[in-house]
Amino acid sequence: MMKFNYFLFLLISMVSFAQKGEFPTEKVDSIVKRIQLPIIPSYEINILQLGAKGDSISNNKFVFDKAMALCKKKNGGTIIVPKGVYKINGPIHFVSNVNLKIEKGAKLKFSDNPQDYPMVFTSWEGTMLYNYSPLIYAYNCSNIAISGDGTIDGEGGKIWKSFKAKEEAGKNRSREMNHNSVPLNDRKFGEGYFLRPQMIQFFNCKNILVENIRIENSPFWCLHLLKSQSITIRGISYKSLNYNNDGIDPEYSRDVLIENVTFNNGDDNVAIKAGRDHEGRANTLTPSENIIIRNCNFKGLHGVVIGSEMSAGVQNVFVENCKTVGYLKRGIYLKTNADRGGFIKNIFVRNIQLDDVEDCLYITANYHGEGSGFQSDISNVCFSDITCNKASESGIVIQGFPNKKIKNISLKNIEIKSAKNALSNENAENVLMTDVFIGKKATVPTAAK
Question: Which end of the chain is least crowded, N or C, by CB within 10 Å?
């Protein structure tokens, strides 16, 4: 009973904060305190000791496999990758208690031959299935890290990029399997279906650290946090501009800290997801929740996105002290449609500096106008202390449904200096605006003469 009352108290508190337009700093602090960094044993192995060659030509796949096997035998350790360019014809599969340390001047350069990547249990755009292995893949692991000042290059701009034009049949097949509850063992993709693999995926893992590395040229999503918890992503940077190169995708994941990240992506910087349609709605006990994004530099398509694959629900998201470096299409973007169901609630965004965007703040329950029968609940969203230089389309957009209105939206201390369309507020209730300026601020009228 005490546990139930505690969570009920938290829920009531979050609603109260949203209604008042306040940022729940204590809640953020409690999440950060709960997140655990990985504990790595003292054993170390330098890949040069195992015969690695950083000449950008030799295949080092067997070296990384051997290093992981040695760490498993020792119950964990650090794999050191010194300066050099290491070609790897196939994926790296993690074991528990390992830190892959890529030192300054070192680059992992993965093969772009699809035949090098065997099928593994994974996910693709919100549907669980078997597909090409992510380039770096951890499944059922704990206490794992990727660190150092080196680079991971996914070689995604040639063969993998060509898959985009051929993926439609495979994508539609995966969605039909989702909607028809096809058993997982029958969801086999890989060769002939053209569904590109993620660059890095942590699946059903906990106590994760990704720190300071640079990610370039991913085939698909860059860093996918799938059904994982207690995650710290900090100090990393990107230059990954291929199709669907989302920076970070937490999905069915909780207790996530993303900080001091410099994005430069061909798609969303952070895209928070929670499964798709029928399959996602069947997993409502595993929403994406307790996600903190702070002190980041945004550049790409959208800054922070929730959805559209969010059918298990997304809650307790905190974004603060971020800014753009260059263009974004949309700054903060909450999107779902009538196929999804689920909920988006308790979203807090403050102290954001946007430059040139198409739309500054955008909330829609009718993404692409698709679907029917499963409208989503969107409530308790708080935006505060946000500036934007120019919105070439809309400053603020809120789009609900007549029979499923978006509820409890707080907009406080918002300044959008220029916008083609100032505000579109449709099918929403209890929208509170305090000190919101779109366009030139009105002056105090003078007495008529």
Answer: C
